[in-house]
Design a protein that fits this description.
By secondary structure, the chain is an alpha+beta fold. The chain has 5 helices and 17 strands. It starts with 5 loop residues before the first helix and ends in a 19-residue tail after the last helix.
Amino acid sequence: MRRVTKRERVTEVISKLDAFPKTLEDAKETSSSGGAATVCAAVLILVLVGSEVLYYTGTEVRYEYEVDREFKRDMKMWLDITVAMKCGHLGADYVDVAGNSSDETTRGLVMESSHFDLAPNQKAWLAKYQKGKAATGSRGLDSLQRFLRVDREAMLMPKASTPIEGDHDACRIHGTIPIAKVAANFHITAGKSIHHARGHAHLAHVVPPHEVNFSHRIDRLSFSDEEVGGHTLDGDVQVADERTTMYQYFIKVVPTSTQALGQKQPFFANQYSVTEQKTVVNHKRGSGGLPGIYFKYDLEPLTVRVVEVRRSFVRFLVRLCGIAGGVFATSGMLHQTISSLVVTFKPPTGSNLPSSSPQKAPPK
């Protein structure tokens, strides 16, 4: 008698643990309907696997929320606004809750004469930009994914393709303002400002009333580290019907950082939401205030982190196994159910019908 080796003994033990018993070839029964169901299941699996591969090769954006702990980190405010008044009749000031105040000269802003009207290519760009904002909502938080794959040139208004005729009838105020992470108020009003121990005052009475017009166009207003991306008030245009109109923008800044795949350091986008209020100042009717454009902002105590990551390979394999097993199991159950229904409701064939031929009479 041949001696059983240790390897054969181990193989025999393992074969007894087989959870996938095989069916004898003589016991298998094939059918055309089963073959059709198998082909359909295979095609469906290929389609689903293809879509799953495309999904895996893409990236995933994760949002994380926590309390903002970086209260000492300074911020920037990027500003580019055109007001339909001459620069000599305007004053721009910054005041925060800590008592710090300054005018446009000390904050690094530039005021230059410009045209309020736009060139044809700029009007086309502005109309396209406003249409895109209207589709996503222009007063709420913008989609943060645009900062992951941002096109800087596409987000900035192009230069005029043709010179604009006529004298300069507006003032463009632009630049970067370093600000602290506290509530503040930046405003543009008629008349230059004079700073004193209790704050500042505007020489609005020296500006002729017919020269006052606070119609304005906001080309850029952001609190990002860099001048990139599209923001809530970018491309906003306001035309004043009255010369004593006061525009107030109540802004809530949300400290936000975005980090694209392969980016070493996060980009602080600092998105914001805004509520606008338009008032016609009439002291005789009890509506007080000083006509102008006011940006009043405050910061939220929560911070948002947006990170772009690769999808998990293990999860990809699990989903592929689920697709293959699920489609085959479901198609098998459907095929078996349909086959049973066909057999149950199929009319009997001619061989199974009772014979109608006359029977012979039994012999007497």
